[in-house]
Automatic annotation (TrEMBL), chain A:
GO terms for molecular function: transmembrane transporter activity. It comes from the Bacteria. InterPro entries: ABC_transp_permease. The keyword Thylakoid does not apply. It holds the Pfam family BPD_transp_2. The chain crosses the membrane at residues 42-63, 70-87, 93-115, 122-142, 162-181, 209-232, 244-262, 269-288, 294-310. One of its GO terms (cellular component) is plasma membrane. This is Ribose transport system permease protein. Keywords: Cell membrane, Membrane, Transmembrane, Transmembrane helix. It is found in: Cell membrane. The keyword Transmembrane helix applies.
TrEMBL record, chain B:
SUPFAM superfamilies: P-loop containing nucleoside triphosphate hydrolases. The keyword ATP-binding applies. Transmembrane segments: none annotated. GO terms for molecular function: ATP binding; ATP hydrolysis activity. PROSITE patterns: ABC_TRANSPORTER_1, ABC_TRANSPORTER_2. This is Ribose transport system ATP-binding protein. Residues 4-245, 260-503 form the ABC transporter domain. It comes from Asanoa hainanensis.
Length: 318, 503
């Protein structure tokens, strides 16, 4: 029994690894440039991180089920276009409408994946291409300006004067997903599906519904991320969110969620999204030359994954 | 000099001591049996011998010389090899490729396969065991038993590496084989003895005594003794394994319920699917119906079809008189049907999830209050089943993959019982890989469930098991029900009677 007691702290430590990696990164950036830890740059990080956190949180569910959603960024771009187009007519209703449409598009991809038995990688790769093209057509291949952004302006305010509303909203999204998973059987269902789909199915788990649900939430999150982007940029664009795809995937894996499914959490992805954003925003601030920035970025991501992935939970690392 | 010797081997895992100072000596050219309960440490010991497990203490000596085995390659260089279950072959490669895989040697020159050399190398290995398998046959076109022969041939490659008689380790090779295939395997093992040393593990004690020269018994990670196989009886071995005398009535026949004629619990009429045709039978409440048949008889698929896991093309299924549709496993669960699959590791359990989560996976309502998981309710429920089935686990939150095979199986069985709403239980090889004691406990549990009116369909691990447990037996042959044999306590047919119908 003594070994059991000795193992416990080490196991608990791997659970906190994403936070430790985050703290280490903040410390490193502060040492590199003591001015980094100012209110201004922290607010900048929080605001930049918000859409990424939301995107990563939604896609994490799909990854936990053992799939991947490559369409999130393209779907978010399309959603910015929809929002910009609909705001003049729908006003305050435009936001829920966009999120609902994005959720529906996500669900359709989920249904295609489940019913036609096509790998999620392929379905969402196709989805990404189609959604990008639709965005181009709908927007007339150009930026759609938002003249009156009052319905989404709330996201650009500051809670208590310091905390960006968008970041607070992102936190709430993560918390809601995490709490729902924690207090319902969904967590068991999702991780059983991700670890071993056939075992989950033979235990009567609603595997198909769980997967479609995950894609649906992932789509809704892409819609919400789009609202955040529009509120910041006063416009929608057919490629506006496209460059968020790889950072979102990086955020998920840096958080330590296993890309093979089953093991992980949205909290981990929150920490991962902050690490990725800190690197993006922080490296230029502390004066790393842009040529080295990419090298450092890549290296730190790999090191972070090496630290955060709990290999005792993941038997095969692909 | 001993071919292999182990002294004081210790291996700790979090919460368990798998090996607690094992001593073992293996003489050259003998077939050594290893017996012990589930979790006694047999697999851990064997894995230590092929470098898959690093012991915490103790030494391993090969032909008198102390060695440190860090990997499978290390062990192979010392002439020790393990035959894994058939999954370790790459299915879309030829037998020859699989045999030389990882030790290609002269079969590859400048990175390019030399097929003639490879074929010859593979043929040499196959010749050693006198197997007629075509080395150029694709592995997935071979039968179960043939694939195992390929595994053995693959392991025999180590002979060329170490220039010594090889030690071949077989961990539960018979658990997935049919009785005929087992005969072939045993013939091979006897042949191997001419030039190699064999270590053999099985939970079927009669088998162990049949094929081995000597049997060592492990209990709780310690060696507790050995017997010469000649003249020994399974009972004696079992007594050493558990340290006390086991019960006589293995199948708990005295607890068999008398089935009263009433409306059948399950009624199947004209059920057809890809591999079975026009299947009709009834199962009464409290009745245990065994289905026997060889590989390819379609009995596994019938079982899966009854659980909604295999599509059907015609026929109807009634539960307590009401016609039901089974488009999905979920529908079957809701109808009060439970299924224990044969492949426990890949289909039965979710290894990384805890005992509690695995136990409640199918019947979430049993641990929930409304839509929410109630941690207290779950703890009480799971703990009570852990006690009731005496599941040996460090705790309810331990990942199920850390448990020994028998305890894993008890958790999977409990999964269907926690809600108390089960009406029909489909058991596909429920005792595969379980030791005698646990098997007996599973039988007792089946009897208890039958007494409460649960209907059971049993695909037995052996004919003896089917005969011992069932009230009635269906013999399946080529996708059809060939005949139905009543099987009441006191008037059991012999397995031989059934074999005649099976082929
Ligand atoms: N990787 C592991 N992590 C934690 N515990 C383990 C691990 N492997 C084995 N154990 C534990 O070590 C003990 C011995 O296991 P082992 O697999 O050697 O038993 P066995 O004799 O082969 O049993 P079986 O007959 O069921 O195959 C068991 O209690 C098991 O739970
Ligand atoms: Mg074992």
């Amino acid at each position: 029994m003594s070994t059991a007691v000795a193992m416990k702290p080490a196991q608990r430590l791997t659970g906190f690894m994403p936070l430790i990696a985050l703290a280490a990164l903040v410390a490193a950036l502060t040492i590199a440039d003591p001015d980094f830890l100012t209110q201004r740059s922290l607010i900048a990080v929080a605001r930049t991180a918000a859409p990424l956190i939301v995107l990563a949180a939604g896609a994490t569910l799909v990854v936990l089920c053992g799939g991947i959603d490559l369409s999130i960024a393209a779907l978010a771009s399309l959603s910015t276009v929809f929002l910009a187009l609909w705001l003049p007519n729908l006003g305050g209703l435009a936001t829920p409408a966009v999120i609902a449409v994005a959720a529906a598009i996500g669900a359709v991809q989920g249904v295609a994946h489940v019913l036609l038995r096509i790998p999620s990688f392929i379905v969402t790769l196709g989805g990404m291409a189609i959604l990008s093209a639709v965005a181009l057509v709908v927007s007339g291949a150009g930026t759609v300006r938002v003249v009156d952004d009052s319905p989404v302006h709330w996201l650009d305010l500051y809670l208590g004067g310091y905390v960006p509303m968008s970041a607070a909203t992102a936190l709430i999204v993560v918390a809601v997903i995490a709490v729902v998973l924690r207090v319902t059987p969904l967590r068991s269902w999702i991780s059983a599906t991700g670890y071993s789909e056939s075992a989950a199915r033979l235990a009567g788990t609603p595997v198909d519904l769980v997967k479609i649900g995950a894609f649906c939430v992932s789509g809704a999150c892409a819609g919400l991320a789009a609202v955040m982007l529009v509120s910041r940029q006063f416009s929608g664009g057919p490629t506006m969110a496209d460059n968020l795809l790889l950072p979102a995937v990086a955020a998920i894996v840096v958080g330590g969620t296993a890309i093979t499914g089953g093991h992980g959490s949205v909290w981990r992805s929150l920490a991962g999204a902050l690490v990725v954003t800190l690197l993006r925003v922080g490296l230029p601030i502390v004066g790393v030359p842009s040529a080295y920035e990419q090298i450092l970025y890549g290296a730190i991501i790999v090191v972070a994954v090496a630290l955060t992935l709990d290999r005792s939970k993941v038997s095969i690392v692909k | 000099m001993n071919a292999l010797e182990v002294r004081g081997l210790v291996k700790h895992y979090p919460g368990v001591t798998a090996l607690d100072g094992v001593d073992l000596a293996v003489r050259p050219n003998e077939v050594l049996g290893l017996a012990g309960e589930n979790g006694a440490g047999k697999s851990t010991l064997l894995k230590a011998l092929v470098g898959l497990v690093t012991p915490d203490a103790g030494t391993i000596h090969v032909r008198g010389e102390q060695v440190k085995l860090r990997s499978v390659v290390d062990a192979a260089n010392h002439g020790i090899g393990m035959v894994f279950q058939e999954q370790s072959l790459v299915p879309n490669l030829t037998a020859a490729e699989n045999i030389v895989l990882g030790s290609e040697g002269p079969a590859v020159r400048r990175g390019i396969y030399r097929w003639d050399v490879m074929r010859r190398l593979a043929q040499e290995q196959l010749d050693k065991i006198g197997s007629p398998i075509d080395p150029l046959a694709r592995t997935d076109s071979l039968s179960f038993a043939d694939r195992q022969m390929v595994e053995i041939a693959k392991v025999l490659r180590i002979e060329e590496r170490s220039q010594h008689p090889p030690v071949v380790i077989l961990d539960e090779p018979t658990s997935v084989l049919e009785s005929k295939e087992i005969e072939t395997l045993f013939a091979q093992i006897r042949r191997l003895r001419e030039f190699a040393t064999v270590i053999f593990v099985s939970h079927r004690l009669d088998e162990v005594l049949d094929v081995c020269d000597r049997v060592c018994v492990l209990r709780g990670g310690k060696s507790v003794g050995e017997v010469a196989a000649a003249g020994a009886v399974p009972r004696e071995l079992h007594r050493m394994m558990i340290g006390s005398t086991g019960s006589d009535d293995h199948y708990h026949g005295s607890a068999a319920t008398t089935v009263v004629e009433e409306q059948p619990r399950l009624s199947v009429r004209g059920l057809s699917g890809a591999s079975f045709h026009d299947i009709s039978f009834d199962v009464a409440p409290g009745e245990i119906v065994g289905i026997v048949g060889v590989h390819g008889s379609g009995r596994e698929d019938v079982c899966r079809a009854l659980f909604g896991a295999e599509p059907t093309t015609a026929g109807e299924i009634r539960m307590d008189g009401t016609r039901i549709d089974l488009p999905s496993t979920r529908a079957a669960c809701a109808a009060g049907i439970g299924y224990v699959p044969a492949e426990r590791k890949t289909e039965g359990m979710v290894g990384a999830l805890s005992v509690a989560e695995n136990m409640t996976l199918a019947k979430q309502q049993a641990r929930c209050a409304g839509p929410f998981v109630a941690p207290k309710k779950q703890a009480t429920l799971v703990d009570s089943w852990i006690r009731r089935l005496s599941i040996r686990t460090p705790g309810r939150d331990t990942p199920i993959q850390r448990l020994s095979g028998g305890n894993q199986q008890k958790v999977i069985l409990a999964r269907w019982l926690v809600a108390g709403d089960i009406r029909l239980l489909l058991l596909d090889h429920p005792t595969r890989g379980l030791d005698v004691g646990v098997r007996s406990e599973v039988y007792r549990l089946m009897r208890e469930l039958a007494a409460t009116g649960v209907a059971t369909v049993l695909l037995g691990d052996s004919l003896e098991e089917a005969v011992g447990m069932a009230d009635r037996i269906l013999v399946m042959n080529d996708g059809r029900v060939a005949t139905e044999v009543p099987c009441p306590t006191g008037a059991k047919p012999t397995p031989l009677d059934l074999v005649k119908e099976m082929v």
